[in-house]
Amino acid sequence: MRGMKAAPFEYTRVESLAEACALLAEHGPDAKLIAGGQSLVPMMAMRLARPARLVDIYRVPELQALSAEADELVLGATVRQCVIERDPRVRARLPLLIQALRWVGHVQTRNRNTAGGSIVHADPSAEIPLVASVLNATLELHDSSGGSEIPAQEFFLAPMVTAIAPEQCLARIRFPIWSEARTGSAFDEISMRHGDFALASACAQVALDAEGRCTRAVMGVGSVSPIPHALPEVGEQLVGMRLDDAAIAGAADAVAGLIDPEGDLHASGEYRRHLARVLIARVLAAARDQALQTNKAAA
Ligand SMILES: Cc1cc2nc3c(=O)[nH]c(=O)nc-3n(C[C@H](O)[C@H](O)[C@H](O)COP(=O)(O)OP(=O)(O)OC[C@H]3O[C@@H](n4cnc5c(N)ncnc54)[C@H](O)[C@@H]3O)c2cc1C
Predict the structure, then answer these.
(1) Is ligand 1 within 6 A of the CB of residue 201?
(2) What pTM value is reported for the model?
(3) Pocket test for ligand 1, best of 102, 108, 121, 125 (most atoms within 8 A of CB)
(4) Whose CA is nearest to atom 20 of ligand 1?
(5) pLDDT tens for residues 266-292?
(6) Looking at the domain assignment, is residue 124 inside a domain?
(7) Is 135 inside a domain boundary?
(8) Pair (166, 195) in one structural domain
């Protein structure tokens, strides 16, 4: 390949969300937002993306806010991944996101990458989109005429294709916080080397009652479907059950039956299905154990 260099482009660093939206409206599909640039810049260097104008939102203060409300954690789209993983409010209230972040790239990439960039890039193996989908986070989109909301489970359409329009900016991601005292979560994945894109990944969050019965369960798998694959129907089957080995094996089998992974150079489709089954069993058991420990701590 000759000269890994982007095609020429104009560049504007904006100070506000309104300014970003005005530029997107003015330049249409020729303009593209840039946040951390860790996915977009390589794509431009390979000429897979050729925006005529980059609109840099990385330093827009209103997009960098992180707040914890009573029932939700609100991340501005350009909150950096390293900020999220060090935030005590996220650690206490949304441990699943912390558990996922340890699998995302490397310390060096997390120092620059943004939560919103990962969600809009929509790589089917990406960890943050999987957590957003499994918890069905609310995504706030803005354009020059105002804002709208979309549930994460409706946002991802195909590999690297989402419901966002060219003139829209993802402004905030609102993750629901579960109120149940006995809640546990886990994220796990298998890749060739730590920090590589996953061959398969899985995460789960469960809530248990005082007797240890499941009152709520959500789960999903990554890298085995064209989009981050939330499986609410399998979670619903677990409600009212004790999450013993048989219940967990049943859920893992159900997940394996609902996916149809494609094979590639790194792993066959059947191997990916096997990994998804194993990983779902692991994360459900780990989430259950964490919820039971919370029970002990609260007692
Ligand atoms: C070495 C390396 C390893 C990596 N490993 C992993 C990994 O294991 N798991 C993983 O998930 N990712 C991984 N990544 C990808 C990394 O997390 C990406 O950088 C991230 O997905 C994109 O974030 P960004 O802020 O850099 O976005 P950018 O590259 O700036 O943008 C990505 C796309 O999103 C759009 N965009 C960005 N912000 C917004 C917004 N607010 N509204 C609308 N559109 C927006 C851009 O226009 C562009 O199309 C890795 C990257 C590197 C370089």
Answers:
(1) no
(2) 0.96
(3) 121
(4) 118
(5) 999 999 999 999 999 999 999 999 999
(6) yes
(7) yes
(8) no
